[in-house]
Amino acid sequence: MKPLTILYFALASLLASASMPVVAKETVQKAARLDTLSLTTLSGTRWNAKSQRGKFVVVNFWATWCKPCVKEMPDFQLLSQRSDTAVLGLAYEDLSDAELIAFLAKLKVTYPVAKIDVYAPLPAPLVVLAQNNTVNAPGITINWTTTGGTLSAATSITGAGGLANIGLTLPAAPGVVTITGTRADDATVFATFTATATLVRTLTITSGNGQNATPGSPLPAPLVVNARNNGIAIAGVVINWTISPGSTLGAAANVTSGTGAASNTATLSTTPGAVTITATRQDDPTVFVTFIANGVKLANIPNLTPSQLSLATALDNICRSLNNLNSPTANQIDFRTHPQSGTRP
């Protein structure tokens, strides 16, 4: 008998004993030895799983843009205060260390956190155990293949304990990858891992929400959004824009820059009230953000004196008349846009 089995380790939020590796054929999320994990944390210290022997170890993958992840972090903080438990956070982020440290400080997180790249190799290798008649077999060549991504080598050789490992860098495209380790001395004996390359697309408002302007006039500031994939700013994403009837946009669609940013302008309708502007990722229509702007009459400003109210009403009437002009002059457009500036047509 020449079994080839996989050592158990969850590469998601998991609870596992660092002192008791379990032999089982599982997926890649349960397919690396915990004691091989070693990373430098945000504090600059080295975290090594081997030093946690005798404790329960919780390894939590998270990101600042993952709301459920952030919500559960206080629970991990409480868990980390137990004397028999060690917690490690692995952050998929392109934020600077200083920004990430500040974020953790707001949440009062004190357990060690390391930053990793979503497109970097998996933080722990894939490990197999080769045995001959239940005895660990050293010196066995393991041939590795994968349906996607990049392996760190085509082969590896089992050590004195019968263990061999390999590293994997997941592909940029989302999907399931199958990795197979096969004994070179018996091609009928193999172990199969599966890994999932995930892609989380987000779109957030950077600025421009909640603006006020007089009806029929442009908003004073642009509407700015930011697109990210797995927390990394992404260029070249088409953003489709829509706006409430009667109001107009500077563009129906545009493309994100190298920083993941896209912006637009809007002119409100001549009717006072709330205006809704929506920006949607074309590569995933389920990902969108909504801006709210308000067309506010000057006469609706509270606590105006009678003379101020009279002036405000006159300005509102002038702006409404100017909005109805087919070919306004430059000065008339300026007055319509900034009636508070005192510019006269």
Structure description:
- This protein has 4 helices and 27 strands.
- It has 3 domains: 4-197, Immunoglobulins (Immunoglobulin-like); 201-295, Immunoglobulins (Immunoglobulin-like), CATH 2.60.40.10; 298-341, no CATH class.
- The protein has a 5-stranded mixed sheet with strand order 18-27-26-21-23, with no helix packed on it. Strands 1, 8, 9 and 13 form a 4-stranded antiparallel sheet that branches.
- It has helices at 67-80, 97-106, 306-323, 330-337, and strands spanning 4-6, 14-17, 38-40, 46-48, 56-62, 85-92, 113-116, 126-132, 135-136, 141-146, 150-151, 155-157, 163-166, 168-169, 175-183, 190-197, 201-207, 212-213, 223-229, 232-233, 238-243, 248-249, 253-255, 261-264, 266-267, 273-281, 288-295.
- The termini are far apart.
- With 345 residues, the protein is mainly beta.
- Helix 3 packs across helix 4 (330-337).
Q: What does the secondary structure layout of this molecule look like, with pairings?
A:
Elements: E1 4-6, E2 14-17, E3 38-40, E4 46-48, E5 56-62, H1 67-80, E6 85-92, H2 97-106, E7 113-116, E8 126-132, E9 135-136, E10 141-146, E11 150-151, E12 155-157, E13 163-166, E14 168-169, E15 175-183, E16 190-197, E17 201-207, E18 212-213, E19 223-229, E20 232-233, E21 238-243, E22 248-249, E23 253-255, E24 261-264, E25 266-267, E26 273-281, E27 288-295, H3 306-323, H4 330-337
Parallel strand pairs: 5-6, 6-7, 18-27
Antiparallel strand pairs: 1-8, 2-5, 3-4, 8-9, 8-13, 10-12, 10-15, 11-14, 15-16, 17-19, 19-20, 19-24, 21-23, 21-26, 22-25, 26-27
Helix pairs in contact: 3-4
